[in-house]
Amino acid sequence: MAIQLTEGYVDGLAPNAAAIKNAKGLIQKNKLVQLHQTEDGTLLFGECAGSGKSNYACSVDFIQPDKEPTSRCSCPSRQFPCKHALALMYAYVAGQTFTTATIPEDIADKRNKIEKREEKAAAIEADPTLKAVPKKKTVNKNALKKKVQAQLEGLDILEKLTLSLIRNGLSTVDATVIKRIQEHVKQMGNYYLTGAQVELRRLAGLLSPKNNPEANYTYAVEQLTLIHALIRKGRAHLQAKLEDPELALDAESTIEEWLGYAWQLSELEQHQRMTEGAELIQLAFTSYDDPGRMEFIDLGYWLELGTHHIRRTLQYRPYKAAKHIREEDTFTEIACPKPLYVYPGDLNPRVRWESLATRAVTEQDVQSIHAQAYTSFAEGLKLIKNQLKNPLADPYPALLLQVSQFYQSEEGQLVMKDSEGQSIGLTDISLPIGTSTGLLPYLPQETLQDVTVLLVFEHQMDTGQLIAQPLSIINGNGIMRLLY
Predict the structure, then answer these.
(1) Options 2.40.160, 1.10.260, 2.40.50, 1.10.3710; CATH of 390-481
(2) Do the beta carbons of residue 287 and residue 328 sit within 8 Å?
(3) pLDDT, tens digit, for every residue of 402-442?
(4) Is the entire prediction scored with pTM above 0.85?
(5) The domain 272-369: what is its CATH number?
(6) What is the pLDDT of residues 433-471, one digit of tens each?
(7) Max Cα separation, the chain?
(8) Residues 6+ apart with CB under 8 A from 32
(9) E strands within 261-307?
């Protein structure tokens, strides 16, 4: 069986553009000294000369045709695939000769382990009673108490900082105050308050002299309000946790993540935050830079078929490790997670999965998107406004709405209205996910009538208005992505 590879497919596997360039450079320099493939054509392997005396042993395994190939290499790189494995695939695409050889013993052993895991998973799927009850995570309660007490102490320090900023007034903020805020950013890490670190870093950015702080005063006040809510709600939560003999996690709200907790999938399963048999269709995708988190974020919006639920996938790529993590991309099939893990959240909670089956999108799937959208703006906006009342809620909720038509107001603003005549103004939100509203005038008018639209909302602090940005338009012809 010959492996079907194209250069575009291999490009899509690369973690970044530099890895592609370096891999092709290895081929040009004739660094690949051995090229082999197994008789069944499911494994490419060989050796690549490196900077040391010994060659690197690299391979790309296609034994699971419904999944991305597994790359392996003896080099120390943390990129997957590394440049040596990519070079192996590019050489194959280029038509270089790969001699038939026996599969290496270490790879055969790894394949056997994977096969046993898959057999076990198939048996459990056929008979769920075979699934082992997940072991409850053991907690060192004394250590956890000390951590909670440290977090409370950190919130006290954070409160003193914010109160001093309010008393002195934002107009007095200068380079010295900015430096003080940045020192507190580092300090919050010592108190296990990573959420506070992020919000203080955002506050420092709003008040920085290079960002025209006078124009940002309204948003800086809103940021201080958010930090105050984090202090108040975080303190109440931590004090209640100390009074709980089990020091249990709150799996219903987002407060744990605000305080810096990272949920494990096993914990979500223990709290029954998982769904079997869910099917999702991606409606929009984008990547953006979040200086507050010091991470790049890959953001996908998905509709869980058969429900109103808009879910989000979030991949965080920290600045320091971004080149080692492959950026996610637009997904054009139906995703069938096994199972779907749902994080605590608001209208659009984060979801994740460990394994995934896929199928093609059908006309019926597209029709179901229309069926799950809210027909009345009033009904949908009520949900949005209720969420935005909570300072610790996601400030950019997304919703599917059925739209009767789009038009331009006398003031020149793009507007959409529903079948009842209620209208919503459209403009791009402040989250740097990319522009899309300005694309609407270039679309054929017939594609903008009686359609379903995925929108992301924001309450503009400077105008007091609720605005919406269209991300995708779903009509009889399919999904028209404005962000992808």
Answers:
(1) 2.40.50
(2) yes
(3) 999 998 888 888 999 998 989 999 999 999 999 999 999 88
(4) no
(5) 2.40.50
(6) 999 999 998 888 888 889 999 999 999 887 888 999 999
(7) 76
(8) 26, 46, 47, 48, 49, 87, 88, 91, 96
(9) 274-275, 280-290, 295-304
